[in-house]
Amino acid sequence: MKASKVHTEEKLDADNEYSVKGTMFSVGVVGAVILIFWVGLFALYMYRV
To answer: What total number of domains does the chain contain?
Structure first.
């Protein structure tokens, strides 16, 4: 039974690695959208001032 538990822990570690990659990608995309929005609003402000 212990051998199957070891394989389960290895599988969970592998799944966790993919989850972190997806999370980092999602955070990067959201950050990029916020940055683009902020730069656009700043450019609009500078254009009108």
So the answer is: 1
Tens of pLDDT, residue by residue over 15-36, are 666 789 999 999 999 999 999 9
Question: Can you tell me the distance from the alpha carbon of 10 to that of 3, in angstroms, rounded to the nearest whole number?
Answer: 11
Whether this model's pTM surpasses 0.85:
no
DSSP letter (8 states) at residue 1: -
Helix (H) or strand (E) holding 40: helix 2-48
Domain span including residue 43: 1-48
Amino acid in the structure at residue 24: M
pLDDT tier at 9, thresholds 50, 70, 90 = low
